[in-house]
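Slide 14.
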Amino acid sequence: MASYPKSLLALVEGLKKLPGVGRKTAERFAFKILDWPQKDIAFLAATLYQLTDSIKKCNQCGCLQESSSCFFCSKPDLEPILCVVAYAKDVYPIEHTRLYHGYYHVLGCLISPLEGKTAADLAVDLLLSRITSLAISEVILALDSTLAGDTTSLYLQERLKDKNMKITKLASGVPLGSSLDFIDEGTLSQAFHGRQMVL
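Slide 15: predicted structure.
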């Protein structure tokens, strides 16, 4: 039985690393890419190759940045509120609501023993340092409504309970088991407006 060329197999394996992409979908994508004009393939390859050079993570908030200064940290007139999210991608749906005007803090992961992620991976010391240096009056825990998100939220509540500030979490409107990047702006706006005190 004939097998795929090695270079095509390598592309399939690479595409399978994307979330929600299994072997059949990866094969379909790979064959579609083979039909693209050479210039489109070259553009995609160059874009992917330059990605890690052009996009970095801010060493303070963890958001994505393309220039020497972080867009999110350097916005004028930021309120003394810190929104804690799991991943850099979670910042963008929050920004699109245009309701939030404070700082962000990206954890980089959620506590998930099945994925080998523990509380030590959260770099909570940097979070605590920023809360002090920015004189934060409220921390919003904007984490996924999943087991990992809830576990992380409870852990952070315990670590922050001695701080003299409000700790809130997103209110109803965020369905159980959902990730922020799958929630529409209206629902996310409602969740921000109705956020609830946890401590």
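Speaker note: DSSP finds seven helices and seven strands in the chain.
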